[in-house]
Structures are given as structure tokens and as C-alpha cells.
Design brief:
It contains eight helices and 14 strands. By secondary structure, it is an alpha+beta fold. The chain folds into four domains: 71 residues, no CATH class; 83 residues; 88 residues, Alpha-Beta Plaits (2-Layer Sandwich); 90 residues, no CATH class. It has a six-stranded antiparallel beta sheet with strand order 7-3-4-6-1-8, with no helix packed on it. It has a three-stranded mixed beta sheet with strand order 9-10-11, with helices on one face. The chain has a three-stranded mixed beta sheet with strand order 13-12-14. Helix 1 crosses helix 2 and helix 7 packs antiparallel against helix 8. It starts with 17 loop residues before the first helix and ends with a strand.
Amino acid sequence: MGFMDNIPEISFIENTKLEDVISRMINNFQERYKEITSKEYELAKANPYRLLIYSAALEIYQALQYIDTAGKMNFYKYAYGNFLDNLVSIASVSRQQATPATTILQFSIASAIASPVPIPAGCRVTNGNEVYFATDEYVEIPAGQTSVSVTATCTEAGTIGNGFSPGEFNVVVNTLPYIVTVTNTTDTTGGANKETDDALKERAYEAPHGFSVAGPEGAYVFFTKSVSPEIGDVIVSTPDPSEVDVCFIMADGSTPNAAMIQRVEDYLQDNQIRPVSDLVSVSAPTASTYNVNITYYIPASSRSAVTTIQNQVAAAVSAYNEWQTAKIGRDINPSYLIQKVMEAGAKRVTVTSPTYTVLNESTIAKTGTVTVTYGGVEDD
């Protein structure tokens, strides 16, 4: 996590190791024995007293670990799980729970009839692969008409319901009084897993900005991320006085769809969040696509590890692409690509693309084609 990078490590037990505890206890025993008897006493490795000290040291060291953990749970850097939930509550922040995906379903009949056709609330539809959506409310196909649309929510919370295109949900599970067909007319979106520890830490770190009524950048970042655990990077700008532009991407690096943008915009319009003088607009960033085309060479001294290095290079390129597309406004930087490939074991790298490109604060890099060529082994 970026905001944790410069926070130093701490230890409430001064980084004590098990060997330190054993050594200290043995020395204390021998020193005390000499003090009482005026004789030297060396504890051999098989000495029963030494074995007892080993057993006691294990328990003492375990207790020290509990002490160290208990102290660290008071800091964002180390807290996790329920400890973190308790810690962030001080900043009036709570973990976002898993949310289900949503879509719009259109129910239709072949020809109009003289009476309305009821579609009950909770009517389920599926794509045939054990994913179900249920209608949010009761609706009717009006008399004389052939279709009606209604919002529907996935029956299972989390990302399982995301990413299905229009037309994929076309099987009615419930028995209806007429031959009714169904289809989803929008992508299924909005499902999110339970907020991770890292995401919760970052939001809690930003929470103090939300206490201001002056509309600071940090407040809009905090409130935007509070809409859903799905939301990733957020950029806030002010093109003109009293105008606020909020630009965001999803946590997986994808571009938010219109429904998610509208959801964020509606949330930020709350008078408890938006200063009355602010004109807030929400959008997705503009994409700037880059291609990866590189050739790399492996030093002769690593000839025996060629296959391993090739796999590491492939992983390094994937890591670069993930990094490059994770932040809005991050310049397209081939130097970091070269660094990652060199760290993976390459001797040298020739980069045809990408070229260094400066991006503005409302543009995000998107990966296009990826071509990675192994050039062979070269003398060191």
C-alpha cells in the first residue's frame, strides 16, 4: 500500500528471537549457579536442566509473540481482521460488506392480451450456470402491451454476478401464468466481495479528510471509495472555482460503466457530503492504449536457468502491465518495464514499444497487444 511505504517497522519485544530467549535463560542459569555455589557450571546440550530451559523458553517466546501482536494491532500497518475493524471504528469507518450485482430484466409475451400479466417480486431468472437474479419488485406487463422492464439483483453477494452481457440471462425459473420470455438488457455489474484489509486501511487513512466541510480533495476520494469496495483509484480535480471533477476506475483496473458512475454521482450529491457551493461531476478516465513489444537476452552464465528466467520474464511483464494500469494519470514508462525484466534475470532488453508518454490527470493507460520475444543467450 502506497501510504504505508514510509512507515517504519516496529517491535514491542525489540525483535527478540527464540534463540535470544534460550541464550539469555542459559546464561542467567549459569551466572546464578556460580553466584550461589562459587563454582562454574556449564550446561551441556544433553543436560536435563538445559532441556527444561528449552521447554520453558518456547512458552516464554510464544508469550512474547502475543505481546508483540497485541501492541501492533493498535496500528494500521499491522492490524487485520476483527482487530482492524475495531481500530477503524475510531475514525467512524466500518468494513464494507459484500454486495450483489444488479441488472435490468425485460419480461415479454409473444402478443398483447386484454389483461395485465403479473411478474412477482423475487421472480428468478438464470443463465443456466447456477447464477440467479431475482426481480426487486412486483411489476406487470400492462394490458395491451408485450413487455415490461424491472431491476433485478443477484441472489448471491460478491463478484459472481458481474460481467455478463445483455441477453445471457434468458431462463425463467419461476412458473408464470403465461408463456413469458426474459432477457437482461444491461450488463450485470455492481457485485463486490467483502472489503479487504488493505482497502479498509487505505479508506480509514483517508477518513479524516471526510470530516471537513470545505470539500477537500481527500474528502471526495474517501467518499467515492465508500460507495463500493469495487472502486479503485480516484482522482479529484477542480477545473474552475466551485467545480469538482471526480474520475475513478474499478479495483481490478477496469473502466466503470454508466450505472456505477451514476451510483457514485448520486452518492456524492448528498448534502451531508457535498458542500452546497460545489458542482460535482463524475466520469471514467480516458484510455490511452499502449502495446508491449520487447526482445530480451539472457546471460551465458545463466544458461542452465533459461526456462526459469523465461517464466520470470513473463511474470515481470504481467506485473508491469498491472502496475502501469493501476493509477489514473500514471505516465506510460518503459523504464520500469526494463527494470522488471532485468530483475527477472535478463541481461539486456530492447523495447520497441511502449515509448515514454505523459498522461494527464484524467487519462489512464490500457494494455493493448503484448509481444515478448526471447532473443537467446549472450556472453556476459
